[in-house]
Automatic annotation (TrEMBL):
Reactions the enzyme catalyzes: 5,6-dihydrouridine(20a) in tRNA + NADP(+) = uridine(20a) in tRNA + NADPH + H(+); 5,6-dihydrouridine(20) in tRNA + NAD(+) = uridine(20) in tRNA + NADH + H(+); 5,6-dihydrouridine(20) in tRNA + NADP(+) = uridine(20) in tRNA + NADPH + H(+); 5,6-dihydrouridine(20a) in tRNA + NAD(+) = uridine(20a) in tRNA + NADH + H(+)
Signal peptide: none
Name of the protein in its database record: tRNA-dihydrouridine(20/20a) synthase
Organism: Spiribacter salilacus
Keyword S-adenosyl-L-methionine (UniProt): no
Gene symbol of the encoding locus: dusA
One GO MF term attached to the UniProt entry: tRNA binding
């Protein structure tokens, strides 16, 4: 079993964790493990790799997450992961959406643990990369700890390098994907118990963890923590990850301004003329979450990107405005100005 650093990761999120999102997050944390959106293995088999697997080398360490149930498709996808420079390949058996179920992959596969074990073995034979599994604790009424233990034990014996567990069960019918992230109760006790029962299997906890502070206690007993949407809506929560989680001190102080500029330069270098700027600015919207000027920052990016023909100037104007805001704020310290007043400084 290949050893990998699992201490902190950002969850794979459909329509969110694309290559540009991962580049932005990498500017903030050099060591947090990042994931692609789930890529259907069947699409790689039929449509080719470029569209789905191209990414910037600065994103690494990055994990390719595959969805599927056809052994030959998954083996092919696993082999491509190595070819395209990924660090790990992950099998999704946790997504409960109807579309995924229709293709016989995602969470519905948890009802077939032996078959999932065979898929993991097939993928492992096709690549030298670590093969990991992302699951729920159960599905529908198959939600006992005994059933989860059996599933995890099969993953271990199949050679999975880690099990990433969203600590909720999934309802395959009756709940939307969003509701399946919120309605089923979190069962952290299942995750802790499975680590105690199967200490040789690296376990990563996902579900309900929103800050580094909440992550740290879990690292005393588990191998890692995965943060989901909280890291997308407020990416700056990862700013202290390299030092607090991984023990790596940065040579220079990280600032939101430097991250925004670095991302702007990346967009300028990589955006094709026919790609809407909104595809990039949407990831940048949460960078100043909770800071003075955040509301205007979000508005300048979202409204500016909506204009026909908008380009890099949308990001440039937002950065320039934040620079002016910071300078004005420094000039008016002690004069009673509030953040509400500063918001009104936007031209």
């Amino acid at each position: 079993m290949t050893q990998i650093d699992l201490r902190l990761s950002v969850a794979p999120m459909m329509d969110w964790t694309d290559s540009s999102c991962r580049y932005l997050l990498r500017l903030i944390s050099q060591h947090t493990r990042l994931y692609t959106e789930m890529v259907p293995a069947q699409a790689l088999w039929h449509a080719g790799a470029e569209r789905f697997l191209h990414h910037h080398p600065a994103e690494n360490p990055v994990v390719l997450q595959l969805g599927g149930s056809d052994p030959k498709h998954l083996a092919y996808g696993a082999s491509l992961a190595m070819e395209w420079g990924y660090d790990e390949v992950n099998l999704n058996v946790g997504c409960p959406s109807d579309r995924v179920q229709a293709g016989r992959f995602g969470a519905c596969l948890m009802k077939e643990p032996e078959y999932v074990g065979e898929l993991v073995q097939t993928m492992g034979a096709a690549t030298s990369l670590p093969v990991t599994v992302k699951s729920r604790i159960g599905v529908d009424d198959t939600d006992s700890y005994e059933a989860f233990h059996r599933f995890a034990d099969i993953m271990l014996k199949a050679g999975a390098s880690a099990l990433i567990v969203h600590a909720r069960k999934a309802w395959l019918k009756g709940l939307s994907p969003k509701q399946n992230r919120e309605v089923p109760p979190l069962r952290y006790d299942y995750v802790s118990a499975i680590k105690n029962a199967l200490p040789a299997l690296p376990i990563v906890l996902n579900g309900g963890i929103k800050t580094l502070e909440e992550s740290l206690p879990w690292l005393e007993t588990l191998d890692g923590v995965m943060i989901g949407r909280a890291a997308y809506h407020d990416p700056w929560i990862l700013a202290a990850a390299d030092s607090r989680i991984f023990g790596h001190q940065k040579d220079t102080e990280l600032t939101r301004r430097a991250v925004a500029q670095g991302y702007r330069d990346y967009v300028l270098a990589t955006r094709a003329p026919d790609v809407p700027i909104s595809r990039f600015t949407r990831h940048l919207i949460g960078l100043y979450q909770g800071q003075p000027g955040a509301k205007t920052w979000r508005r300048m990016l979202s409204e500016g990107a909506a204009h026909k023909g908008a380009g890099i100037e949308v990001i440039d104007r937002a950065i320039d405005w934040m620079d002016q805001l910071e300078a004005k704020e420094l000039d008016t310290i002690g004069m009673g100005d509030t953040s509400d007043h500063l918001e009104r400084l936007v031209p």
